[in-house]
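Records of this kind hold a single protein each, on a pair of labelled lines. With that in mind, the following record should read easily:
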Amino acid sequence: MKKNMKNLKIFKNKKIIVTGHTGFKGSWLTLWLLHLGSKIMGISNSENISSSNFKLFNLKEKIIHKKVDLRNSKKIKKLINTFKPDFIFHLAAQAIVKESFKNPKATWETNTIGTINILESLKKMNKSCVAVIITSDKVYKNLEIKRGYRENDLLGGIDPYSASKASADIAIKSYAKSFFKKKKIKIGIARAGNVIGGGDWSSGRLIPDCIKSWSKNKKVIIRNPYSTRPWQHVLDVLNGYLTLASNLKKNKLLHGEAFNFGPSGANTNVLKLVKKMRKRWNKVDFKILKNKKILESKLLKLNSMKSKKILKWNCILNLDKSVLLTMEWYIKYFENKKELLRLSLNQIKKFESLKK
């Protein structure tokens, strides 16, 4: 067994807080950590829609589930300091660009102030704790460059989502260097791209929009078909988060550092991804319609050499395999929802076997 698989053993019997555990990535991470033998408290402001992985996996009965708004600093502080976690994975956010234009204030409060509330809570901890805080590939000031953004590139953002995430990123670094230099708290920043996989039903995201339309034999509207994104499977991204956490636990020099977790190879544009999905689904139809009212980056690419060199992390699944696993999940959803927990665990186990 390689070192990267041994690193997963560090989570067995550990107390772990996952914020945003009811969401797409958070539910997959919670399921994976349960598989690894962790004791989990989940913090989220929503239990999401009825078709969410949180409900499909019956996670509410398997963890300590707390419905709390990130903006409630007193409750967040009490939960963290009472549970006394060994690890925190902070994923909770308002993550939809389109929604950030509708509710910019709530987006800023959740993404920036919510993150600061987590950091303030950690200041009161008297035990060792590793916190991996997830921001976004969109924290970088988008210059439409092809080389891929590196961790030391300029941060920025035009839309409220990107700007609020960039601000959170700056706050994390400030807290790490200002308040946690001599404490037992170690903080890492994780930046990932466009994540795909089974169980994402968020409005305004490409694959969920396609699946919801195609399952009803409707035509899906595709905006910005030639915009490229760093698409990658949710398990590759979560493997990055877990790898960062295990390395932070052992190496204090990584404290306050940011790491990109992006796909290997060239980015793929929206239209090409839709065509790959079409091979796995019957009766596919779409219409291209640009929405100029929503400002989105045309080119987004991450340079993950720092993660590969320092953390020994690699993106294991290529885009074809990522699409295959994703479509396999959604097909099973419409065939037999009761089989989704077993299928999802099998996908995790299969992914782990590829790491050996």
